[in-house]
Write a structure and sequence with these properties.
mainly beta; Porin; 14-stranded antiparallel barrel; 3 helices; 24 strands
């Protein structure tokens, strides 16, 4: 006669693992505010327009393969951009990813600057309800980020005829965050579907500060600062599908097709504008808020984000070689906002002329694991080596005569660990955005990232005889 028992070590691990995950989430979320607060003025000038620079983290594997991999099935990763892939889970999985980037900015006059910042890429958590059939996925990550500082010089003529030089500084920070949760379900060996509810929220702030730079005029002329803050919140949804075919060209190969669509989102929000000026009688150039009903305004409104669609192909030649090809399209010409100064042709929320255009992106990549699925192979043979690249037509168009193109190359290593299902990924990226033609600037950017993906079988009972 046999008995079903849960070994003590397994029960202890089942209780401890959720606490470890929750502790890690708390530490990361606590550090998000500090990272964003210290990164003002350390991003791309193009994040000044629209809703900022878009982020589309799907998985650390995808990040090294050009940023796509919407059709790629993997036991070690769950691509958050296609919820249909959440159906294909064996392990309860937790992923943390962060990166450091440097941006070298150059304009047509040869002026140059180097900007640096660190940021959180994503926190993902997923688990199977029914092994390799029905799975749950949760994700928290940035949707967009605004992080810029721009200075312009000018001069006005006083009634006395004396010129008064001044400096205007545009400074922006904040952005939108994405909280996603949903299900993936395997209908049969060929077809998988999935859906998620997506919550978008965040605060975006812009400051426009005007300072008179002549010390002799500082006592007579007041500098001023306009603070413009928009808080947004809304809900949308993402639907995904996945087709898998085996033995297409040869035995043991696999061809996959993936598709996901994110519906348009209507975000409700509040905009607060405050005008501050510099009182010459106040010591140390301290800014004070000027009293008056017309110097502070609160306005309710809404912003509509467009439909975004993604399509991917993946081909696994064997257990060693994998190739991906992906595309993304967003109708950002449909972007609209009821806030004054938001949308076309002005940016969101304030600061310069710009229009928005439809965005497209294509990417490709390859992965090789020399040892395949042989667990007895050498350590170097069990490392996954990845290389990719992408080309993008950005959705912002500050100069109507010039398109903003982005291209980049990506690569990375996925390091196995003694714990089955747990990997450490090191990724790199380099590329360019924009051009020095016309009134545009060119960004040359570099990024390195570290991701840790924990995988473990939870709540598993073992039989002892």
């Amino acid at each position: 006669m046999s008995s079903r028992l849960v070994p003590r070590s397994v029960a202890r691990r089942t209780r401890i693992a959720p606490m470890v995950v929750l502790l890690a989430v708390g530490i990361l979320l606590g550090g998000v505010g500090a990272v964003q607060a210290q990164s003002s003025g350390s991003g791309s000038i193009y994040s000044r327009f629209g809703v900022g620079e878009l982020h589309g983290f799907s998985s650390s594997q995808s990040q090294a393969l050009g940023g796509g991999a919407y059709a790629l099935r993997s036991l070690n990763y769950n691509a958050a951009q296609n919820p249909a892939l959440w159906s294909d889970q064996v392990y309860t999985r937790f992923l943390m990813s962060g990166s450091f980037r440097a941006v070298d900015v150059r304009d047509g006059d040869g002026r140059e600057g180097l900007l640096q910042s660190g940021s959180l890429d994503a926190i993902h958590f997923s688990f199977p309800l029914y092994r390799r059939s029905l799975g749950v996925g949760l994700a928290f990550q940035p949707y967009s980020q605004s992080d810029f500082r721009v200075t312009r010089d000018g001069s006005v003529t006083l009634p006395s005829g004396t010129p008064a030089p001044y400096e205007v500084e545009f400074d922006g920070s904040g952005g939108l965050n994405l909280l996603r949760g949903g299900l993936g379900y395997k209908i049969n060996e060929t077809l998988r579907v999935g859906a998620s509810a997506d919550v978008l929220f965040g605060i975006r702030e812009s400051r426009r500060t005007t300072r008179f730079t002549d010390p002799q005029q500082a006592g007579a002329l007041r500098s001023a600062e306009v603070v413009d803050e928009v808080q947004l919140f809304g809900v949308t949804g993402t639907f995904g599908g996945h087709l898998a075919f085996r033995n297409v060209v040869q035995d043991e190969d696999a061809l996959s097709i993936g598709l996901s669509v994110t519906l348009p989102a209507s975000l409700s929000g509040e905009r607060v504008q405050i005008l501050e000026d510099e009182d010459p009688s106040t010591p140390n150039d301290t800014l004070r808020v000027v009293d008056g009903d017309d110097l502070r305004s609160d306005v309710d409104g809404d912003v509509t984000l467009p439909l975004r669609s993604r399509f991917g192909l993946s081909y696994q030649f064997d257990q060693r070689w994998t190739f991906v090809l992906d595309g993304e399209y967003g109708r950002w010409s449909d972007f609209s906002s009821s806030f004054d100064g938001v949308g076309q042709p002005r940016p969101f929320p304030v600061g310069g002329e710009a229009s928005l255009d439809n965005r497209w992106r294509v990417s490709t990549g390859a992965e090789v694991v020399p040892g395949g699925d042989d667990r007895l192979a050498s350590y170097l043979s069990r490392i996954a080596y990845r290389l990719g690249g992408y080309l993008e037509h950005a959705y912002v168009q500050p100069d109507p005569t010039e398109d903003v193109r982005v291209w980049g190359v990506t690569g990375g290593l996925s390091l196995p660990t003694p714990a089955a299902g747990t990997r450490i990924d090191l990724n790199g990226q380099a590329g360019r955005r924009g051009t020095t033609a016309g009134s545009l600037v060119r960004d040359t950017f570099y990024r390195v990232s570290l991701s840790i993906s924990f995988g473990e079988r939870w709540f598993q009972e073992r039989k002892l005889r």
